[in-house]
TrEMBL record:
<keyword id="KW-0472">Membrane</keyword>
<keyword id="KW-1003">Cell membrane</keyword>
<dbReference type="Pfam" id="PF17203">
    <property type="entry name" value="sCache_3_2"/>
</dbReference>
<keyword id="KW-0808">Transferase</keyword>
<dbReference type="InterPro" id="IPR035965">
    <property type="entry name" value="PAS-like_dom_sf"/>
</dbReference>
<dbReference type="GO" id="GO:0005524">
    <property type="term" value="F:ATP binding"/>
</dbReference>
<dbReference type="InterPro" id="IPR000014">
    <property type="entry name" value="PAS"/>
</dbReference>
<protein>
    <recommendedName>
        <fullName>histidine kinase</fullName>
        <ecNumber>2.7.13.3</ecNumber>
    </recommendedName>
</protein>
<keyword id="KW-0067">ATP-binding</keyword>
<keyword id="KW-1133">Transmembrane helix</keyword>
<keyword id="KW-0902">Two-component regulatory system</keyword>
<keyword id="KW-0547">Nucleotide-binding</keyword>
<dbReference type="InterPro" id="IPR016120">
    <property type="entry name" value="Sig_transdc_His_kin_SpoOB"/>
</dbReference>
<dbReference type="InterPro" id="IPR003594">
    <property type="entry name" value="HATPase_dom"/>
</dbReference>
<dbReference type="InterPro" id="IPR029151">
    <property type="entry name" value="Sensor-like_sf"/>
</dbReference>
<feature type="domain" description="Histidine kinase">
    <location>
        <begin position="305"/>
        <end position="525"/>
    </location>
</feature>
<dbReference type="InterPro" id="IPR033463">
    <property type="entry name" value="sCache_3"/>
</dbReference>
Length: 529
């Protein structure tokens, strides 16, 4: 026999419903039978009491009880009444209980079996008692003369076998109603079980519990953010990592994703329901990689499943790697230029022009030293100074003049990693802006320390940003160059804005002509990447 615990949840519920239905129907049928029996007894009592009153009030009875031979007159009348009223006995007796009539003539003249004291005292009496005809429901009422004195008694009864037969006649109706209720209840239970089986996939309660436990454990332990958004745009599921990455409140489940307080670009992507693959999104504190796909079950659309990966540290390291790569490229260019200059000096010496060789060499050295002195005087932060020297070499190779000015930026007031991210991206954008432009191509970097804030300014002589593009310029994927979009260009200014907001600073843009980006960062002495 199959263990009920291994049945499907739908099967267990169906079995439980059938058991409950059997118990309810059995109890209801028993209650209906008891009620029907009680009603039949009450009906029999009312009927015999009415017949007894009718017989006792008949004038012929009142006259006959005062004669010397009441039986000769009352026996035919009593039997006629018994047959016409379908009762089992009609007995007329003296006030002391001696019978004048009886269905069995042999019982005439004998003492009535039952209680008659109340009736002899002038009251009606009903009871269930066992007499000569067996157990019966009977009534005993007094017969009065013209003065109200009790001159006789009338007892009318119906045997309990007749009452039981009347109840039994109602059993087919009771059983039919019970059968109909069983069919309706069984059909309803079967339909409910069928629907439940379809919804649970035929799994048992233990299997569903195990699935829920594993589902919950996996959902909250994965290191990727996971969101499920239904077709109406409401958040239906969010795991712990997604709450952390997006700073979502506990009450976000069930609310529209447009009310979750996310960045506009991220909100638009999640609300669109469109498939996305490895799409970068920049929030106020993080760089996230988003993948989104439609979810369905047995052909029914459930909405979208979105996964998020934190790429903040990776983007920061990538920016530093790009800066290091640019610096290496600048050093390679400088090495190439130094080799050319060294060959020039050697050739001048071989030609006997030592004075010209000395003048050429000292002039080049002065140019390099002046640039280094400018950077060191303006920036005391080693990482930023090294970055600007590398960018200056890149600018020189591309024919761009890069100037560094300032009153000096103290070391350690702003995390070096954020300085490299902010200044590096702004300078790269400025170099891109002036590359290929006619006329003078200049980029100017200025640093200052004002009222406890580091002030960084990067300006260029490029075409500048049109007013309608100022806000879009800081969005992920925006670029004036080809290749903008997810995974390509257009991430630099978004990273700058993210870093500035995270540090509690401000960012402003001026121009055209040209473009000037001004960043103000409050000091965070002792904090460094």
């Amino acid at each position: 026999m199959t263990n009920p615990r291994r049945w499907s949840l739908a099967g267990q519920i169906f079995a439980a419903q059938v058991l409950v239905a059997v118990l309810v129907l059995a109890g209801g049928l028993g209650g209906a039978y008891v009620q029907a029996r009680h009603a039949s007894e009450q009906q029999a009592t009312s009927r015999v009491l009415a017949v007894a009153h009718t017989v006792a009030a008949t004038p012929l009875v009142e006259q006959a009880v005062g004669t010397a031979d009441p039986t000769s007159t009352l026996q035919p009348l009593a039997e006629q009444v018994r047959r016409s009223t379908a009762t089992d006995f009609v007995v007329v007796m003296s006030p002391t209980g001696r019978r004048w009539t009886h269905p069995d003539p042999r019982q005439i003249g004998r003492q009535f079996i039952g209680h008659i004291a109340a009736a002899a005292a002038g009251y009606d009496l009903t009871e269930t008692y066992t007499g000569t005809l067996g157990p019966s429901v009977r009534a005993v009422v007094p017969v009065r003369d013209g003065t109200g004195a009790v001159t006789g008694l009338v007892s009318v009864g119906i045997r309990q076998t007749a009452v039981a037969a009347a109840v039994a006649s109602q059993l087919p109706e009771l059983l039919g109603a019970a059968a109909l209720a069983a069919v309706l209840f069984g059909t309803g239970s079967w339909l409910v079980a069928r629907r439940l089986r379809r919804q649970t996939g035929g799994l048992g309660a233990a299997e569903l519990q195990e699935m829920a436990e594993y589902y919950d454990a996996v959902l909250h332990s994965v290191r990727e953010g996971l969101l499920l958004i239904d077709g109406a745009g409401r958040v239906r599921l969010v795991n712990d990592e997604a709450r952390r990455l997006l700073s979502l409140p506990e009450s976000v489940v069930g609310r529209p994703v447009t009310e979750a307080g996310l960045a506009p670009s991220l909100t638009a992507t999640l609300a669109s329901g469109e498939a996305r693959e490895d799409e970068l999104h920049v929030t106020d504190a993080r760089v996230l990689v988003l993948n989104q796909a439609r979810a369905s079950w047995q052909g029914r659309d459930l909405g979208t499943v979105t996964t998020l990966r934190d790429r903040t540290d990776l983007e920061a390291l990538t920016g530093e790697l790009d800066s290091a790569r640019g610096l290496a490229e600048a050093l390679r260019s400088q090495a190439h230029e130094s080799a050319n200059r060294l060959h020039t000096v050697v050739s001048l010496i071989e030609l006997g022009r030592a004075d010209e060789a000395l003048t050429f060499a000292t002039g080049e050295l002065a140019v390099s030293q002046r640039l280094t002195d400018e950077v060191v005087a303006s920036v005391q932060e080693p990482a930023l100074a090294a970055l600007l020297l590398g960018k200056a070499a890149q600018a020189s190779e591309r024919g761009i003049e890069l100037a560094v000015q300032g009153s000096g930026l103290p070391e350690g007031v702003v995390p070096s990693r954020d300085l490299v991210t902010i200044v590096g991206n702004l300078v790269d954008n400025a170099l891109e802006a002036v590359t290929g432009q006619p006329g003078a191509r200049r980029v100017r970097v200025a640093t200052d320390w004002q009222d406890g804030c580091a002030v960084l300014s990067v300006s260029d002589t490029g075409p500048g940003l049109p007013p309608e593009d100022l806000e879009r310029a800081f969005a992920r994927g925006w670029s004036t160059k080809a290749g903008g979009g997810p995974g390509g260009r257009g991430l630099g200014l978004a990273l700058v804005r993210q870093s500035v907001l995270r540090l509690g600073g401000t960012l402003s843009v001026e121009g055209p002509p040209g473009a000037t980006f001004v960043v103000r960062l409050p000091a965070r002495v002792g904090e460094d990447a």
